[in-house]
Specification:
6 helices; 12 strands; alpha+beta; binds biotin
Length: about 260
C-alpha cells in the first residue's frame, strides 16, 4: 500500500475553502481530536486533518472505528456554521450526501446513505461520519466532522465481528482506489452541498438525501435509547429526524437511533 501523496491530492483539489488548510499525519489517536485541538488554536474554516492510521478511531455511540494503516480515509474537518446545536443533525446529513456523491464521481460504485451517518455498499457499511461540536445555547462555535471510508481494506483484514457487516470499496469491486482522488472528489461535493445548504436551506438537501437513502420506503427496525421501533421509512422531517410509519399508520419522528433493514 502506498502512503497518501499530499502533492497529488493538492493538485487534484478543486475547492475554494474546504481542505485548503491541510494537516497530514502518519498516526494519531483520532483525527477528530487533532482537528478539535487545531480549531481551539484558531485553524480556519475548512481546515482538514488526514491520518494514515488511528489507534483510537471512534464512531457514534462510543463505538470504535477500525482504522488500519494506509488502507482507509480517516479525515476530519472544521466548520464554523451559523447553526444552533440542535441543527447539527443537518450538518451530518449534508456531509453524508457530499461524501456519497463524491464517491459516485470517483468510483462509479452504488454507495448509498443509511440514516443518519452511515455509507453503505451492497448492504454493508463502507463508511461513517462522526460530527462533534463545541457549542452553547446561543450557537455552534465550531463543529468537527470526521469521515471514515474503508477504501482498499481486504475482507480478511476486518476483525471477525465486523466481517459480515462491514465492507470496503476494494472488497465490493475487486479494484484498488487512489485515496487522493476520492478525497478530492468528496471535498468538492461537500463544499458545494454546504454552500447550497447555507444559501437555499434544507429542503433540496432533504430530497436528495431521501433519493440516496437505501432504506427509503422499506421496513426497518430502529434501535433508540428507549427501545426498538418497527416501521416503514417515509423520509426526513425538517430537522433531519427519521420519519417512520408504524403499524396502524401512525407516523413518528426519531432523532437518534440505528436503522436495520428488515426486508
Ligand atoms: C460511525 O459510523 O459511527 C462514524 C465513524 C466515523 C469514523 C471517522 S474516521 C475519522 C474520524 N476520526 C474518528 O475518530 N472518527 C471519525
Amino acid at each position: 500500500m502506498r502512503p497518501f501523496d499530499v502533492d497529488e491530492f493538492q493538485q487534484l483539489l478543486r475547492t475554494k475553502w474546504l481542505g485548503r488548510h491541510f494537516v497530514y499525519m502518519e498516526h494519531v489517536g483520532s483525527t477528530n481530536d487533532v482537528a478539535k485541538q487545531i480549531a481551539i488554536e484558531g485553524a480556519p474554516n475548512g481546515a482538514l486533518v488526514l491520518a494514515e492510521a488511528q489507534s483510537a478511531g471512534r464512531g457514534r455511540f462510543g463505538r470504535s472505528w477500525f482504522s488500519p494503516k494506509l488502507t482507509g480515509i480517516y479525515a476530519s474537518f472544521i466548520v464554523r456554521p451559523p447553526f444552533l446545536p440542535k441543527e447539527l443533525l443537518i450538518l451530518t446529513i449534508a456531509t453524508a450526501v457530499g461524501v456519497c456523491e463524491g464517491l459516485h464521481e470517483s468510483t462509479s460504485l452504488p454507495v448509498m446513505v443509511k440514516w443518519v451517518n452511515d455509507l453503505v455498499l451492497g448492504g454493508k457499511k463502507v463508511g461513517g461520519i462522526l460530527t462533534e461540536a463545541r457549542a452553547s445555547q446561543s450557537g455552534v462555535e465550531f463543529a468537527i466532522v470526521g469521515i471514515g471510508i474503508n477504501v482498499n481494506t481486504e475482507a480478511e483484514h476486518f476483525p471477525s465481528e465486523l466481517r459480515c457487516v462491514a465492507t470496503s470499496l476494494k472488497e465490493f469491486s475487486g479494484k484498488q482506489f487512489r485515496r487522493e482522488r476520492l478525497l478530492a472528489s468528496m471535498l468538492a461535493h461537500l463544499e458545494r452541498v454546504y454552500e447550497a445548504l447555507l444559501s437555499n436551506g434544507f429542503e433540496k438537501l432533504r430530497e436528495r438525501y431521501c433519493q440516496l437513502h437505501f432504506a427509503q420506503g422499506k421496513l426497518v427496525e430502529v434501535t433508540t435509547g428507549s427501545g426498538k421501533l418497527v416501521g416503514v421509512v417515509k423520509g426526513l422531517d425538517g430537522r433531519g429526524a427519521l420519519m417512520l410509519q408504524l403499524k396502524g399508520g401512525v407516523e413518528t419522528a426519531i432523532i437518534s437511533g440505528t436503522v436495520r433493514l428488515l426486508e
